[in-house]
Amino acid sequence: MIEGVTPNAGWQQRKVQTSVGSASFRRLSEKKSILDVQYVTPPLHVDLSESSLEEGLDDACAYEIGHVRHALGQLGFQLVSQLSNRGKDIAVGRRRWDNDEERDWRDRGNSVHIEPTRYSHREEITGYEGASDAALVRKHVELLIEQRIQNIRDIYQTLLGDIKASRRRDTTDPRL
C-alpha cells in the first residue's frame, strides 16, 4: 500500500493467474494505483550442432521475446477484461527504467542451457485522474512489453559476451 492513501471501499483488487504467470491491479485513489506482474521464463536448450553460438542465441532471444509477448499479452488481456472502461483513455509518455536481471547458463560446447528466470514487476501508477482502470492497465502492459523486449535483447547480448569470454578463458587456461 502507498503510505498516506486510504483505499475507497468500492475499489477492489483484481487478479488473474494463468499457466505463464499472474497479474493484479488495485486502484488506491483517483490518482494512484498499483499494477503487479509476475511470470517465469522457460528453460531453454540451445542446440549448436548446426548453428553458430550467435545464431543459436539469436534464435533463443527471438523465442523468449515471443514468450514474453504472449505471457504479458495474455495476462494484460485477462486483467483488462475484469476492469471498468468507464473514464478517459490515456496517453502514456516515455519512461525510464533500470534492469539488473541476471541469467544462469551452462555452456556445453555444442549446446547452451539457459535456466528459467522468475520476473516480477511492480508499477506504482500516479496521475491520470479520470482514466479508466482498463485503459491504465492496457497502456502500462504495452509499455512493459516494450521494456521487457529491450531487456531481453540486452540480456542475450551480455550472455553472448559472457560465453565467448568463458570459451576464451577455457582455451588459454594452462591447466587444461
Percent helix: 25-40%
Count of separate DSSP helical elements:
2
Question: Structural class given helices, strands, pairing?
Answer: alpha+beta
Distance separating the two termini: 55 Å
Radius of gyration: 20 Å
Shape type: elongated
Report the major sheet: 4 strands, antiparallel
N-to-C order of helices and strands: EEEEHEEEH
Mean pLDDT: 86
Contiguous runs where pLDDT drops below 50 for at least 5 residues: 1-9
Major sheet: arrangement of strands: 1-2-3-7
If you had to describe this structure to a student in words, what would you say it looks like?
Helix content is 39%, strand content 23%. A hairpin with a 3-residue loop joins strand 5 and strand 6. Helix 1 packs antiparallel against helix 2.
Short account of what is shown:
With 176 residues, this protein is an alpha+beta fold.
Question: In terms of topology, how is this protein built?
Answer:
Blueprint: E1 14-17, E2 21-27, E3 32-40, E4 44-47, H1 53-80, E5 105-107, E6 111-114, E7 118-126, H2 133-172
Antiparallel strand pairs: 1-2, 2-3, 3-7, 4-6, 5-6
Q: Descriptors for this entry?
A:
176 residues, alpha+beta, 3-stranded antiparallel beta sheet, elongated, disordered N terminus
